Amino acid sequence: MSLTHPPFARLVAGALGALVLAGCSAPAPRAERAAQLETQLAALRDANAAGEFVRAADEAERLLAQIDRSDALGARAALDVALEAGEAHARLAVSAPFLREPDADGVWQVSPIAHRMAMARYYALARSLSRRAEVRDDQERLAEALRGADLKEFAFHAQLGLEPSCRAFIQRASELHDPRRAAELFQRMPLAGLRPWLYAELFEHQRSRDERAAFRFAVMAIDEAPSASGFGAARVAQLERWIASESSLEFHCPKCDLAVNPGLRACPNDRTPNVEFVGRKRL
Amino acid sequence: MKLPVSLLSLAALALAGACRSTAGAPGALVAAPFPAIAAENLDGDVAVEARHYTDHKRAFGVDLPREARVLPVALKLGLAPGSTRSLRFDPARAALRLYLPDGTVVASKPASTIVTQFKRANERIVASALDARVLAPWSAAREANVYFDLGEAGELFVKRGEISRRVGEEVRTFGLEQALIGFELEVDGAPRSVFVGLAPTNGARYP
Ligand SMILES: [Zn+2]
Question: Which of B107, B112, B110 is nearest to B95 (CA)?
């Protein structure tokens, strides 16, 4: 079993150093402490923005060991750091994973899933700190960041086929039941490569409830499929099959009434996108 | 479609499971936890449950994390109701793995290679192991064990439903209910990955 991850060893050493320093210094006045935390957070954000995700993950762990979270200022700083740490692992999962898992031959291969587990752990920490964290004039930005964390975790569970937790999340996130609102939301968020999984999971939720909504989610999943590695041809074929024959509705172009061809992206007569087609009972 | 900004921010709060707090810091948001990974899953043709019996000593006669450096997990694995596919599980090709929340991954250990000082325990480890099989329908499925390799003493510890990992001077402890299990099987001959959470619980019995 290989459990040795050099970055963790480095980060523990860093965390210890920071703890020693923190223990030796007198408490800083609030304004000074706020400025110091802001500087540290800015450096962390810069590392993520520069694509230095390993450094960002290490630095975040070091800061989390160092920050005093007992007051609202510290809780907010730790919350922001946890969100950045989650982002670093989300990006490592797709760009340069270093955590490892065994394959069927017992060979340890890089593991995007292990990074997403780490991502989820940091997002859970951020949520748990939200109750005590200070919110300044950036409530919308913070809410948006927490929402992004939820959607990334939702996509992670959807990719793994973890149905109970996906179902529980969708049930409480009523905004996601409406295809237009969900699409508007997903397009605004940095969810590259994840949208087909989100749409496909929402399709599964709606197929037995609202087939018109399910159709739109299915079409959007198919449209976005090329952007996501791992969202395979078999999954696309399953969605296309539902549109073409399994739904109790058939979908037609609102302009020329041509029946939908799920293998195309739009009506061949007038270029109306499939997502705008309308459903009616099959004859 | 564009929504007014105020509506967007309301949606943001609702979707993050967030609302204004009365109990938290002034002006705080309260974000609801993301739903936990369930220890049961029904994913297409596969139905699966995973338990770690904290009282497994009743069935094996020994505490396996301590005596054999393995974590026993009882898997119940079957064909989902309504499925007509053929599902085949082979522990030698399953790449069983236990993901911990910090990104640590623990591999499984073949039952035949696990040794304690007690002959009867060794026999039970093998006799109750999940072996190669074509999966039965869920209604006929029974629990059988897989074992995760805790490696050399000093790095991973399991106690009362929690797993701890030592990293230098730091010890990280997680409830096993936060872990994720993954493995491979074949559905009509095609490879398929399956995932499920893990429930630490009482109620061990020797099958
Ligand atoms: Zn048309």
Answer: B107
Q: Under 8 Å CB-to-CB from B203, ≥6 apart: which residues?
A: B53, B55
Q: Kind of pairing, strands B180-187 and B190-197?
A: antiparallel
Q: What is the pLDDT of residues A49-80, one digit of tens each?
A: 999 999 999 999 999 999 999 999 999 999 99
pTM of the entire predicted model: 0.89
- DSSP for A53-115 reads HHHHHHHHHHHHHH---SSHHHHHHHHHHHHHHHHHHHHHHHH----EEE-TTS-EEE-HHHH
Q: Which residues have their alpha-adjacent CB atom under 5 A from ion ligand 1?
A: A 253, 255-256, 258, 267, 269-270, 272
How distant is the Cα of B205 from the closest Cα of chain A, in angstroms?
27
Residues A151-184: pLDDT tens digits? 999 999 999 999 999 999 999 999 999 999 999 9
Of B97, B127, B134, the residue nearest B112 (C-alpha)? B127
According to DSSP, the residues that pair with B107 across neighbouring strands are B97
Say yes or no for a CB contact (<8 Å) between B102 and A153.
no
Residues 127-156 in A contacting B (C-alpha not used; CB under 8 Å)? 127-128, 130-136, 139-140, 142-144, 146-147, 149-150, 153-154
pLDDT digits (tens, 9 = 90+) for B151-194: 988 889 999 999 999 988 889 999 999 999 999 999 999 999 99
Distance (Å, whole) CA A149 – CA A142: 11
Q: Does A16 touch chain B (CB under 8 A)?
A: yes
- Length of chain B (residues): 207
Q: Yes or no: say if B141 and B101 are a contact pair by the CB < 8 Å rule.
A: no
Distance CA B14, CA B30 (A): 10
Residue A120 to residue B101, Cβ atoms within 8 A = yes
